[in-house]
Amino acid sequence: MEFPLINFEKLNGEERKDTMDQIKDACENWGFFELINHGIPYDLMDTLEKLTKEHYRKCMEHRFKELVATKGLDAVQTEVKDMDWESTYHVRHLPESNISELLDLTHQHREVMKEFALKLEKLAEDLLDLLCENLGLEKGYLKKAFYGSKGPTFGTKVANYPPCPNPELVKGLRAHTDAGGIILLFQDDKVSGLQLLKDGQWIDVPPMRHSIVVNLGDQLEVITNGKYKSVEHRVIAQTDRTRMSIASFYNPGSDAVIYPAPPLLERGTEEKNKVYPKFVFEDYMKIYAGLKFHAKEPRFEALKAPDVNVGPIATV
Ligand SMILES: [Fe+2]
User: Fold this and answer.
1) What domains does the chain contain, in order, with CATH numbers?
2) Which of 250, 302, 298, 233 is nearest to 3 (CA)?
3) CA–centroid distance, residue 216 to ligand 1 (Å)
4) Which residues form the Fe2OG dioxygenase domain (predicted)?
5) Fewest CB atoms less than 10 Å from the CB: which of 8, 31, 74, 134?
6) What's the predicted TM-score (pTM) here?
């Protein structure tokens, strides 16, 4: 049972079919895979890593230490269930960028982040089309399903997981599935900590230099009618080193209407037996905000209520 590693370059050659099959298997059985030779320039990744780590040391680390001291997080005796051992900030790229509002980033850092985000956006869209091909959906189906009236939401969560004296009691990030569409992660190549739940066991997502880790969110589970599943994951901080994580989320636009793709519905299934509802993405996010660290099924159930508004603003 090896963590799925996909060599993206092989999609251009004789091994295309095998590589597509590997992606299919990873989507059906893992909800995660790691991409190598994905075309994002390594020097761009190296520069972003250097700038991110510098920024953490200069602007974020002391704030995190203050927070830990205020909350007494470094001396807890029992499991902490309402906080994570992480230092984060968010950058929005689409529908409009907020990067100019992040005042403590240098000009170079902003420019590098923008360039990286543009490349990742393209990679996310290429991946969605590969998923369409494997699912037997027409090219562009998933991109269109995410589009809404203003295009997809695309943003980056930059996180650092500092050394933690009690990683079992205070999780770096508590277990959850991701709400959105497809997630592309540039993670520390030396400090591990990300784990996914497979067959009841927590499995490490192996750090690998210049790789991009891909995982699927709840919306792809809905659209694929459960053929692909969003998978629970968590971060366990290390006791001696800081882990960097730059996770970019390619999600539906807020008014996109999400529902299982008709070609993927089992024939003859009655309405009442359908597992996944139809809803507006922002309504899902309202529910997710309070239930992120709970099982996903009640979120789907909550949206089956007949009074959920799936009005005519933006159908796909
Ligand atoms: Fe996540």
Assistant:
1) 5-266 (2.60.120.330)
2) 233
3) 10
4) 152-252
5) 74
6) 0.94
